[in-house]
Every structure is written in structure tokens, then in C-alpha cells.
Amino acid sequence: MSTVERDPRLVKPDNSLGGHLSATGRRIAGGELGSLPVIIGLILTWIVFMILNDRFLSALNLTNLMLQIAATGTIAVGVTFVLLLGEIDLSVGSVSGVTSAVLAVLVTRAGWGDWAAVAFAVLVGVVIGLLHGTMFTKLRMPAFVVTLAGLIGWQGLQLYVLGQGGSINLPDGPVTNLTDQFFVPSYGWGFAALCVAGFAAVQFTRRHARTRAGLPTSSIALPILQVVGLAVVLAVIVAVLNADRGVPMVIIVYLVIIAVCAFILRRTTFGRHLFAVGGNIEAARRAGIRVDGIRIAAFTISSGLAAVGGIFAASRLTAVTQSTGSGEVLLYAIAAAVIGGTSLFGGRGSVWSALLGMLVIGSISNGLDLLSVSAAVKFMVTGLVLVVAVLLDSLSRRGQPLRR
Fold it and tell me: Rounded to the nearest 5°, which phi and psi values hold at 214?
């Protein structure tokens, strides 16, 4: 006779630290891998390159790695919003290129101030995303076709804006300082302390609110462990960056963007509706969610952040050329989001995972550059990592058919 199973709804959850660890183990065993594969992949990548080249984990190289991933990583954060819908945005590379070209022309030829030009360039990106989203939702055009046309069309506009010379050098100023400005060590430690304090305040405020409302809460050891873990990670990062030139300004801006986007996705009605639309669009529509508005907003955010990423890229190169925002940027941005764990089927993922995915891709590219490996090998290795990431996503979904 088979064992009688208890209804899980009647089982009182174990909110101790051990109970949470056991629950996490059960979820992993059930196929809910979360960010675990990409974290393991990142650690293995760093170990391999550390063995092959002792300069890989040097403070100088890790600082350069941070600077390299900021631009494409910002674009990956924007793409995540569209991927959560189960759609695709192929235009982000071209959008980043054309908006950075607009920025360069305004600063060097029209005599605009840097911040006014930055604001206008981001506005151009937002308008482009609004156009893509409207064509997708109101005209019922496939997102693939709309953004593919955008990829080609905006690249053409970029070449037209740059003109005969094909490249524009940016003068010294706030834009170039974004990636060339480093904070003194005390500022880096202060920023890390601020992050830890903010995270701790959110965790304990949320726990206190649940206690006052009579809702079950986790063991106090769990948020303490999370806060200590974040403090250790940030301390290591700041120590490494301070060993070289200090914490770059662009990294702080990049992390602030991620934190704001994570808050939007996890703590706002818009974010919950975005996940609902990506998970089951028909159910979301019947629940009264304004599906078209959510979709248009996702494409607008994607293109807006692509513009910001283009500005970061222009700042790092101190110039805008015909190759700015080329196909490699698009491929790496989408690959970073997918490798980080954002599902191509929609409804699952996070912007923090996109950061992890970008670290994996950036580390592979950086490590292979140190080994003087050809671009052909870099593309093949990155493609292999992407295939493994998608395979894990597909297998994890196959392993949990009853939960969907």
C-alpha cells in the first residue's frame, strides 16, 4: 500500500534557518536552480583563467573587467524586461549606437552641454522604444519583425548622423568622466556601508511589518546571514577596486540602475503585472491587467536603457564610431540575460541575474583576451555557454510540469 501523502497546505512551514536551508535543498532537487548554475559557472570560469594566466585576478584586470561590462550590462538589464514578456528586442544594439551618435553630434557640433545632450539622447531611446512597443501591441506586428527592422533602420540612421567621417571624438567633460572617474578609498567604503545599511533596513523593516500583521516570519538568523553575506561580498569588491584606482563612478551608476529596476520588478504593481503577462497573457488579461500598456512600457524601458548603455560605451571609448552598438553588443546583452537565468519563455528572471550573466560573458571575453585567443574562439566559447544556459532552463522546466 502506498504511503499516504499529507496535503502541503496543511503542513506548517518550518521558519527556522534549518527549515529554510532544507526548503532550498528541496527546490534545487526539484529543478528550481535559480542563479546557482551561473554562480558555479562564474566561479569555474575564474578558476580556469586564474590557472591559465596569473594576471586575471589582479586588481588592475578586475577593475578593467568592471569597466568593460557596464555598457553592455546596462543594455542587458533593459532587455530583461522584454524577455520577461516572452518576447525579444533585437534593436537594442542599434538603439545604443544611434543614441550615442546623437549625443556626440549635439556635444561636438551643436554646442550643447553634456547633460542636456545626455538627456536628449536618452529621450530619443525612450521614443524609439515607445514606437516599437506601439507597433507591436497596437498594430499586432511580431516583436521579432519590429525590432529586426529597428536593428537595420537605426543602424542606418547612426551612419547618417555620424556623416562622412564616420566617427566623432568626445571632448573631456562629464560624459567621458563617467568611466574615467574613480572615487578615493574612503568613498568606496562609504558606498558599500550605505548599501549594506539600506539592505539591512529593508530586510528588518519587512520582517517587522509581517510580525505586526500576524504573518509567519523567518528566523532572525536568516536576514542576519543575508546582511553579513552582502557585507562580505561588497568588502571584497571594494578592497580589490581600491587596490587599483578605486571604485569607478560608472559602476556605482550601473548598480543603482540595477537596484532601481529590481525594485520596480519586485516591489511595484507594474513589476507584478509584467511577470503575470509573461507567465500567462490570457490569464493576465482576464484578471484585468492592461496588457498593452505593460508591453509598451517594457519595450520603452528596454530602448531607454539601451541609450544609457550607448552613453557608457561612448564614455569608455571617448568616441562614437560606425561600429558603436554593433551586432556583438546585441548578442552579448541578450546572452547575458539568458545565461543569468531569465527565461526566453517569459515570466521568470531578474535583473540581478543579468548582472551575473554579464560577469560570466565579460570574464570569458576578458580571460580569452589575456590569452591572446582569436575572436573566432571567443564567439564559439560564448555560444557554447549560451547553449548550456538555455539547456538548463529547458531541463528545469521539464522537471517541474506539475507546478506550472
Answer: 75, 20
Number of neighbouring beta carbons within 10 Å of residue 165: 9
- Cell 517594457 belongs to 298
pTM score above 0.85 = yes
Query: Partners of 169 in the beta sheet?
Result: 319
Residue 219 contacts by C-beta under 8 Å, 6 or more apart in sequence? 15, 16, 17, 19, 20
Q: How far apart are CA 283 and CA 279, in angstroms?
A: 9
* Angstrom distances, CA of residue 106 to CA of 101, 194, 199, 385: 9, 36, 39, 39
Task: Give the amino acid at 203.
Answer: Q
Helices (H), 163-220: 174-180, 185-212
The C-alpha cell 519587512 sits at 206
Each residue of 210-227: pLDDT tens digit? 888 877 777 778 888 889
Beta-carbon contacts of 122 under 8 Å, excluding residues fewer than 6 positions away, are 99, 304, 307, 308, 311
Residue 255's Cβ-count burial label (10 Å; 0-12, 13-18, 19+) is middle
Residues 239-286: tens digit of each pLDDT: 999 998 889 999 999 999 999 999 999 889 999 999 999 988 889 999
* Cα gap 129→270, rounded to integer Å: 17
Q: By C-alpha distance, which of 107, 344, 372, 118 is closest to 253?
A: 118
